[in-house]
């Protein structure tokens, strides 16, 4: 461990391991610093792993309500920010790269009846929420933003720096801002094939 991390790195890793075992006994490793807000409103499955500087928040409408659910073997890398107000659900075996933002919360409402005015101060606008679901075996690349109301299907890959604003079907690769599906896995040929004419 000393050869790989150096003395300071090994000491930091040891402190993170102690913190993990004391406060998150089912997790594999939570690297410090780690910021979790309203832990009582979050469910964390087995094998949970984080990188440095992660921020995980839960702001339920009802005090005792669970709004953020992590399945088993979730691995999130450095500086990931996840904020739940209504419901964010992660399936099992989800891999999240660094600097990813995932939230089901918006400051204000911008569609439908009575949208917020651009003349109002953003921090005075009432929070609105729309659940997010990320299913099993999803890989989310570096710098991705996943916005409220989105479902990402089983086995999907979300390319680096993508902004996901609508659902991604099972077994697809989506890239871009806004993200669009560019490939889908074909189980008959056992290959990823390009997708054309995607709306």
What does this structure look like?
The chain is mostly beta strands and 199 residues long. It folds into two domains: 1-27; 33-194, 3 Solenoid (UDP N-Acetylglucosamine Acyltransferase, domain 1). It is 11% helix and 35% strand. The protein has one helix and 22 strands. It has one helix at 2-23; strands spanning 29-30, 34-37, 42-44, 49-50, 54-58, 68-70, 75-76, 81-84, 88-90, 95-96, 101-103, 105-107, 127-129, 132-134, 139-140, 145-146, 151-152, 157-158, 163-164, 172-176, 179-186, 191-194. The chain has a nine-stranded mixed beta sheet with strand order 1-4-7-10-15-18-20-21-22. Strand 20 and strand 21 form a beta hairpin. The longest helix has 22 residues, at 2-23. The protein is globular and about 55 Å long. The mean pLDDT is 94.
